[in-house]
Design a protein that fits this description.
With 509 residues, the chain is mostly helical. The protein has 18 helices and two strands. A two-stranded antiparallel sheet has the order 1-2. It is globular, with a radius of gyration of 22 Å.
Length: 509
């Protein structure tokens, strides 16, 4: 290389010596999101008693957080890319602290639901920045270890949500009942906010993209047109307009797709690149992810049934539900080795989790009135194994079959689909379960029917998996090109919710 070329070469990236401390602080956002996504589940009976909540309001308190997170996640990622990831992370974390305090102080269900929606939107501001900052702050040699810590935060948050909820409810701190589930975020969040302010450094994408506000609103209206009648229709007596809204949902989604195409044709930045939906892998992944993660609504059924029908304490309920995570850990040990089999692993995983949930339903019916938490272990562990088989493989298929330039957008689409599936599942499964309860069916029959609805969703997800491209998957194709992006930026990590674009770090704050 000549002296002139050496002079023109960009300087090597400068990595902060505080990057591991920075990672620990920013991963707190991931942990808090996972905890608050699940912590309320174990407290639903307590909330219902304290605030005189209807079953529909309980569903909204869970689904509202997830829906807001899903609707705002891609926008949150783009805000970070354009305005600075550190800035948006701090704004999101501050908003999360404030909305947690509002949720804990809720005087009625309307205030709690509104606080949960705002809390989900705040989480959507901070969580997408974590992987983006990880990409910038760490050299490629250290990135696998950093990604492992990210995955550990997800796992600990998934386990910690129900368990933390159970412990705090059992302790009944200051006689506040379920409210410390949210109040605990305030002091811990403020400490994290101060630490992040001094430790994190600013970064943003080099490319400047527009914000598709209208597209975001249109997509959100389409989703609410489905979820609102599903959740509220039962209490309203299913008037004609509830069915009209549900019919309008696919029409609105079609209009959304048409609008996104027009946005792309104008050279602007749609929230979802319509070209992605032309790929069989992304379309199939979207359909499977939505339907598969609908099944996670089993937690609502089990939480309410165990506490109201079987007399479980919140902590005992949390322990029973945590056994699902044991299965996820077991499945995670061998699932990566199966990933090259592609959609066959997704098919097998859907079958495994359907079998596991069928065993849970059988167990609930078989041991009615004397159900112990260890009776549920076989079905819950098998279900967790099925989840581990599907989750990683699904994302790998999408990324391996997509053009590398679209990997970030494709993974954002899948992650959004997962959140939408979780919210939709609460509406569908919750409607079935609570309708039977309110029609004076026995608690056991209601719970079993709700769980069998979950089984049906997993079976349908398995059938939709046939849409995915057949054949083996080269998992190495998921890795970004060596020469892709600027120095120190090897492209979006699998699962990242950041927009595609070269990235540069801008000094420490």
């Amino acid at each position: 290389m000549t002296v002139e070329k050496l002079a023109d070469a960009p300087p090597p990236p400068q990595y902060s010596p505080k990057r591991w401390a920075t990672l620990a602080v920013t991963l707190f956002a991931v942990f808090m999101d996972m905890v608050d996504n699940t912590v309320l589940n174990v407290a639903l009976p307590a909330v219902q008693r304290d605030l005189d909540a209807t079953s529909a309001q309980l569903e909204w308190s869970v689904a509202g957080y997830t829906l807001a997170f899903a609707a705002a996640m891609i926008t949150g990622a783009r805000l970070g890319d354009q305005l600075g990831r550190r800035r948006i992370y701090l704004i999101g974390l501050g908003g999360f602290v404030v909305t947690s305090a509002l949720a804990g102080a809720a005087v009625n269900m309307e205030m709690l639901i509104a606080s949960r929606v705002l809390q989900g939107a705040a989480a959507a501001m901070m969580v997408p920045q974590v992987l983006a900052m990880l990409q910038v702050d760490f050299p490629k040699s250290e990135r696998p270890q950093a990604m492992s810590m990210y995955g550990m935060s997800l796992a600990l948050g998934g386990i910690g949500g129900p368990l933390l909820g159970g412990v705090l409810l059992q302790a009944d701190l200051f006689g506040l009942g379920w409210r410390p589930l949210f109040f605990i975020n305030v002091p811990v969040g403020l400490i994290a906010l101060v630490a992040a302010y001094y430790l994190t450094r600013e970064s943003r994408a080099d490319s400047r993209e527009t914000f598709d506000v209208r597209g975001t609103l249109l997509a959100t209206i389409a989703l609410v047109s489905l979820l609102y009648p599903l959740i509220q229709g039962r209490e309203l007596g299913w008037p004609w307009w509830t069915f009209a809204l549900m019919v309008a949902c696919p029409v609105l989604l079609w209009l959304f797709a048409r609008y996104e195409r027009r946005v792309a044709d104008r050279g602007e930045s749609p929230i979802i690149d319509p070209d992605l939906l032309r790929h069989r892998s992304s379309l199939g992944g979207l359909l499977v992810a939505v339907l598969f993660f609908c099944g996670m609504a089993y937690q609502v059924v089990m939480t309410v049934h165990l506490q109201t029908a079987e007399g479980y304490s919140p902590l005992r309920t949390a322990v029973a539900l945590a056994t699902f995570t044991v299965g996820v850990g077991i499945g995670s040990a061998f699932a990566p080795k199966l990933m090259p089999l592609g959609r066959r692993v997704v098919l097998m995983g859907c079958a495994v989790i359907a079998v596991g949930m069928s065993i849970v339903a059988w167990t609930v019916n078989r041991y009615s009135g004397g159900l112990e938490w260890w009776h549920l272990v076989p079905g819950m562990v098998i279900s967790g194994i099925g989840l581990a088989m599907v989750a990683g493989t699904l994302l790998t298929i999408v990324l391996a079959k997509m053009p590398r330039s679209a990997s970030g957008a494709a993974s954002s689409l899948i992650n959004t689909s997962i959140q939408l599936g979780a919210a939709t599942g609460v509406a569908i499964v919750g409607t079935v379960y609570f309708t039977l309860l309110e029609d004076r069916h026995s608690p056991v029959d209601s719970a079993v029917t709700g769980l069998l609805t979950v089984v049906g969703l997993y079976v349908l997800a398995g059938l939709l998996a046939l849409v995915l491209p057949p054949g083996r998957v080269d998992v190495n194709e998921v890795e970004p090109d060596e020469d892709e992006g600027t120095p120190g930026d090897d492209g979006p990590a699998p699962g990242a919710t950041v927009a595609v674009g070269t990235t540069t770090a801008q000094g420490a704050p």
